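User: quick one - fold this with succinic acid bound?
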Amino acid sequence: MQPGFRYLPGHLGADQQRQLVETLRLAVAEAPLFTPVMPRTGRPFTVRMTNLGTLGWVSDRDGYRYQSTHPETGKAWSPIPDTLLGLWRAVSGYPHDPEACLVNVYKGGAKMGLHRDEDEEEFTAPVLSVSLGDMAVFRMGGPERGGKTETLKLSSGDVVVMGGASRLCYHGIDRVLPGTSTLLKDGGRINLTLRRVTKP
Ligand code: SIN
Ligand code: FE2
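Assistant: Sure. Structure tokens for the protein plus succinic acid:
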């Protein structure tokens, strides 16, 4: 893996995971999951999304961007919960709080193609990812599309920090392995990514 990539298996215990899922249920009731579409083509993503924080990541025909409001309700996103701010402060190595927590929900055959997280202004902050629910096959590559990649299975409670040279590397989710966790009643996977968007 690239320098600055850190894998913290089982970083969140079962109680913390359950508590996060409860918090997310309340957040989703306020800011419902939406299905983003690809810029230009309008092709839908297979994941559904929402956000927490002062900024949220959205994708529609006009492009990828961060905005302070939900694209369908027009309301501000719910705040990032303290447990996630605490996690960021403990492991990010970055002295300012994240502004966005993207919530990706994988159901059925949902996956995420190789991409780079590059819509932020601040690349010295890492992207911190939390996995909840079914195990996923995470693919990590290098800074160029088409370069060598390797896979890592992410289980519920695992935390990944993409900082340093890994911050702008290609990554994605090949597939989610059904029935590998009992955390979510209906199965599937939730991934949270905490991001610092603006330069402080
Ligand atoms: C992402 O890159 O936005 C999601 C990664 C993941 O689901 O683990
Ligand atoms: Fe990403």
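One thing worth noting: The domain at 5-195 is CATH 2.60.120.590 (Jelly Rolls).
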